């Protein structure tokens, strides 16, 4: 089944988070660092690009004389600067064909130069990878209405990154800096409300460091100096560019050979942010919800799988520590989704051979992201096998039977059942009864563990409670519209689905945005996930209609 399944761990893998030196508590830097590896994939950059840009940012901060507290703001700003850029990947793929390919050009000198050449290049990429007639239709639609959808995307990324920093409990200074990281010294950045010295110093440093890492990787010290000369007084702070021209060699020294993960985690400035068990769970849920924003079809999926897996683990009599680890495995199991284009995730038709190969990379990407962290690495063996099957028909390694641990089997069954409850681009959502039947069929065929499947289904039955009140005063119909809106349907498509006039659907959307204080689909999607309205099959979510 396409996208319907997750499966578990290596046979003798140790469960649980690493205890480390903080009595079982986890450093926030490790969670954010792991997420940054996925951001690298989403931009078509080699892993640890963000980590290396963080090192560059810290070196710049040291050279301009910032104290530890200010350097801490630079640290987290550099790690989170592009964290919101995957949130509208659905729209990016819709207009430009491959969202990852599109974002990979961010660092091209052509785009840094801006102006007419960048605009022409952007227009040429509309409908990329599609047949000529389709590209013409997409281009026409873009001219008529699509440009309004794309307008403000970058500013929206800044707002989401700011909100994410706040969810992680980071300081107001970090939130402000992340939210201003796309501003330009000359005032021509995004959202375009700050310029010059008005832009927080952490934003100016992190923004420059991002480009310095790429310039050095591509062109060495000469590339860095050329970048500083080209962007000085335009995109970048001229004082920082002067510093780069004078001390560029020292700023990038050893960047190619350094073990970026160890250096970045080890150089966290000021007081290390250490999370309690509950804070770690909350942070992982926030990250999972943020990653699920990549596709409107996946909203809230990871959180729902985590809850269902934990409930099944309880039903099977697992110890509390193992249940918590299983819940966390559910939260992180889809991290690698960032490395696969939405032209694949959101494709309504059958996937080609090459596209399937990319899908099969998701567990591998997730494994790579988690294994860097001492805190998250114990979860990697579970999620690395998230698509393996007992009969050996899964991927990426094709292992079978006893090679797949109990944790992996639980995660797999929970993911299969939950995915069936959710709409996908190639099929409608299944009812709970249909989802249970298909999941049991997977067990009967020898692909899933029968005992585990029954535990998951039992847990799902206990969680199927209805709720009569909508968050933020939303009516039953508004909740219905919000769910369709979050899934990426247009106003006309929502009207057709609900058999109402387009004007009526538009009024509902306007009322929803007003009630939940959202300005676009992505913000509305995040509200729906955070308030349990998506995915539809989630136990705390269903709204009685």
Short description:
With 545 residues, this protein is an all-alpha fold. The chain is 59% helix and 1% strand.
Give the biggest sheet: 2 strands, antiparallel
Count of all domains: 3
CATH topology of the largest domain: Hypothetical protein af1432
Structural class: mainly alpha
Could you name the ranges where pLDDT drops below 50 across 5 or more consecutive residues? 3-23, 110-121, 462-467, 539-545
Secondary structure blueprint with pairings:
Layout: E1 26-27, H1 28-42, H2 49-63, H3 68-80, H4 89-96, H5 99-104, H6 109-113, H7 115-124, H8 132-150, H9 153-167, H10 172-179, H11 201-231, H12 238-252, H13 260-266, E2 274-275, H14 277-292, H15 301-315, H16 320-332, H17 342-345, H18 353-359, H19 362-371, H20 380-383, H21 406-421, H22 432-444, H23 450-462, H24 476-486, H25 491-498, H26 502-516, H27 521-530
Antiparallel strand pairs: 1-2
Helix pairs in contact: 1-19, 2-3, 2-11, 2-12, 2-13, 3-10, 3-11, 4-8, 9-10, 11-12, 15-16, 15-21, 15-23, 21-22, 21-23, 22-23, 24-26, 24-27, 25-26
Describe this structure in words.
The structure is a single chain. The chain is mainly alpha-helical and 545 residues long. The chain has three domains: 28-274, Hypothetical protein af1432, CATH 1.10.3210.10; 276-462, Hypothetical protein af1432 (Orthogonal Bundle); 471-530, Orthogonal Bundle (Arc Repressor Mutant, subunit A), CATH 1.10.10. The protein is built from 27 helices and two strands. A two-stranded antiparallel sheet has the order 1-2. It is globular and about 70 Å long.
